[in-house]
Amino acid sequence: HGPHPQPICYLLCFLSAPSRIQGTRPISLTAAAMGFFGSGKAGDSGGKERLTLQNVTEFIRKKECQRVVVMVGAGLSTPSGIPDFRSPGSGLYSNLQQYNIPYPEAIFELSYFFQNPKPFFTLAKELYPGNYRPNYAHYFLRLLHDKGLLVRVYTQNIDGLERAAGIPPDKLVEAHGTFTTATCTVCRRSYAGEDFRGDVMADKIPHCPVCTGMVKPDIVFFGEVLPHRFFLHKTDFPMADLLFIIGTSLEVEPFASLAGAVRSYVPRILINRDLVGPFAWQPQYSDVAQLGDVIGGVEKVVELLDWNEELQELIQRETEKVQRDHAGICCLKSRNS
Ligand SMILES: [Zn+2]
Q: Fewest CB atoms within 10 Å of the CB: 37, 120, 277, 333?
């Protein structure tokens, strides 16, 4: 917060989030499940039993929830060691300190970027694909996809760990952009982020091979429009029959308002350190909050679903793949040298 504009907040007015106040009836839930939801108006638990995590995981097991939308924020990636550029103590923070940035958010402001792109590329170097690994919670989302349950993951994170976990790009909305692609700030040509890996790692500012303009990774800066894909929310949320909200404070708009864009009886599971957003100020009987450690919360869900073995196998496979790839790169290097 503070005096600086929130990214993209002007887009809030485009959000249509009236659905939770309309008390429509479930269509994909059995009569037994409907007993929990009843027909009470939104925001009024009317003495009905609140849903529990057990109830919701039972819906998944019985295939009564099959269109899962997920919203994630920084709390999902903290266990992967992704540093917060505003937190003193991290290496990234001290690397950025040398530039005397007027305030931390300035590194995402275009005017500052054109004046001094180095701080942003210091962050880019840290977060470029490959430095960090997805964690247990990312792979849980991958497993949702493998089981055909995932409609979409909406992420505020720019670390690319959802992709790294093997969730296909078409299942992702990277609301604040990505380092996997980049655009020339002058001629607007689009490039693969990989094309500039060498420059970024060598602390060089990447330039367009065609027009020599500065190339900027496709991270959404303050005042820039959101990726077109963000507007998939207009169909994704109304059709969802389950919403997971993981590791986000639900403070940054327009992302935060999406939590209210599912139908009123649709279960919403918050897995987060604290109670946030509508879970705090207007809890409904279809809301479930699993508070505390994010990985611990996801483990609880996985255990109730009895997916633990499958998830461990997936993580094992993916870890071996990374080690093989890494070994491959090393062999290639030694052969070339
Ligand atoms: Zn160019």
A: 333
